[in-house]
Amino acid sequence: ARQAWTPGITEFPVFRVMSYNILADLYADSDFSRTNLFPQCPRFAMDYNYRVRLILNEVANFYPDILCFQENDRKVFKHDFKPVLEKAGFNGEFNKKGGQVDEGLSIFYRTTKFKIIESKGFVFHEVLETRYKHLMQKLNKDLKERLLARTTAVQLMALQSTQDEKQIIIVGNTHLFFKPDADHIRLLQTDMCLTELRLFRDEIMKANPDKTVAILFCGDFNSTPPFGVLQYCREGRISEGHPDWSSCPGEEVTGLSISHPFSLDSAAGTPQYTNYTVGFKDCLDYIFYDTINFDVEQVVPFPTEDELALNTALPNASFPSDHISVVVDLKWKQ
């Protein structure tokens, strides 16, 4: 039903962005997942081949121009997404997150609409002591250790419009730490992502002084609307007294305020649900867009609660992930 809103490819100056946590096979394919996390999902519908077909079908029918995946298994990227999406007119790149898990982030773009200038990625625990000394100095020992154990990464890609070469977009893609007591960590990780977006934007602007360089920041932020991540992205500043800094006893962050220079908002607002499991139902996924350079032309409506609850929870035979894709049409301001 959602695909009724996207009957074909957008026309310039409009382009379509899709962000989707697709539930990595390495997390879905276990007895624990089948019996504890997703007991409502029939075994055949948890199978990787079945889910990949549904995901690719969704992509085909939404006609996105920029596509950000989270929890993308490397094997799925390499053997399924890349060959199929290349035939459909996309190019894409994969960045593994940290640690032992072989999953990460990928960004695809429609080659008739965009060409790649450059891409890069960072696993934060690998660069905490070099790129984020200013933050690390403010954190206590327990929090430093916990941050160093995180596998969170950010993927960045600079794309130039083929339809108006004066327009460049820096796309950021991330999947933040998920624990309920980690609002302070998600704020720190969001600040690191925005710092990398800023540095990359500055680098691209320096090399392209006659062009407009805009920002898109997509992902599974594992943060619901009342908390600091959404507030920080939208308002550009978090004071040292913010309650998220005290979300975990023993790891309080004191004397730290953070800010970023962008003018961002959530393109799809705050939908009721982007994640709908037996144990948790809320909004975690966002596409933050640069309000100076873009207008929101359309938000593809989300499934109703009746549709989501039809088979108890996600994933199920109709929905291949525990998350719902976020799909929006943005328009360059002329």
Please provide a written account of the structure.
- The chain is α+β, with helices and mostly antiparallel strands and 334 residues long.
- It is 31% helix and 29% strand.
- The strands form four sheets. It has a six-stranded mixed sheet, covered by helices on one side.
- The chain is globular.
Identify the strand order in the major beta sheet. 3-4-2-1-16-15
Helix content class? 25-40%
Strand content: 25-35%
Order of helices and strands: EHHHHEHEEEHHHEEHEHEEEEEEEHE
What's the alpha carbon Rg, rounded to whole Å? Answer: 19 Å
Largest sheet: 6 strands, mixed
**Uncertain stretches of 5 or more adjacent residues:** none
Summarize the structure.
By secondary structure, the protein is of the alpha+beta class. The protein has 11 helices and 16 strands.
Descriptors:
alpha+beta; 334 residues; single chain; 31% helix; six-stranded mixed sheet; globular
Give the topology.
Elements: E1 14-21, H1 25-28, H2 31-37, H3 43-46, H4 48-62, E2 66-73, H5 74-87, E3 90-96, E4 103-110, E5 114-123, H6 124-131, H7 133-136, H8 141-148, E6 153-161, E7 167-175, H9 183-207, E8 212-220, H10 228-235, E9 237-238, E10 258-259, E11 264-266, E12 275-276, E13 281-282, E14 285-290, E15 294-299, H11 305-309, E16 326-332
Parallel strand pairs: 1-2, 7-8
Antiparallel strand pairs: 1-16, 2-4, 3-4, 5-6, 6-7, 8-14, 9-10, 11-14, 12-13, 15-16
Helix pairs in contact: 9-10
